[in-house]
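Sample intake sheet
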Amino acid sequence: MNLASRQHDVDLAIGKLKSLHDGDVGVVEVVACGASAIPALRAMLFQREVSGLFDTRCRAVEALAALGAGDVLIEYLNVEHLAADPVERLGDDAVINAAARALAKTREERAIPLLLRLARRPALSGVIAALGAFDRTEAIPVLIDALEDDASRQSAQSALKRMGRTARPALVASANCRLPTPDRESESSLRRRRSALALLAEIGLSRETWPEVRSLVRDKDARIAVLACKLCLAHAPTRERRAAIGRLNELLLSADWMLRQEIEACLAIHS
């Protein structure tokens, strides 16, 4: 096949990839064109889209990953995408997330420092998921910070749970860390601490570790106190377990209906 004919096939496949109805077929046809399609896909990926639409560029990411063009994805993620317009920025974030997930599937070790840097930005759930997929201990602090972010929390939780005991010391420290100050804790800090305790309940504590979260049974936040009581009932000495039952009964008096159900279920098991 001559160069002109090959380029013609690439152009047709790219046209389908951009189509609202034939986009998925276009991905297959672009990949079938092989490496000759990479320059056109790269140009599409780097093209600004002020409308915020991102489907076409995400398909370009999919095709580039299938063609083994990890270098192009790394190049894209290395560029600062901080559009002033919030609509355009939302689209860019979707493409960044897609590129990060694609890199995680290729297991590109070179991507880890880049993902660590990008993970400091909020709402990049794909970056958090990609970083977690590598199961690297240096990612644990970033993953714990992501517990504060509604968009990224689930991905961070999954990664930390998979790391298990390796993540436990950092989760214990996070459960005790009230920000910005102990007396004026923010809602995001509360969400992080609740998530950290919930993960500790799943991962498990040792008898030696339990004293490090003991004080949280008396935390001002009812949800945190309930989670700490559950950890106490699972890991603390008998005397402290009896005290946790008393604390749960105390919390029951002012709990909302959802937390009340959780407390009552816990008391039913341990009564």
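Comment: Residues 1-108 form one domain. The two ends are 78 Å apart (CA to CA).
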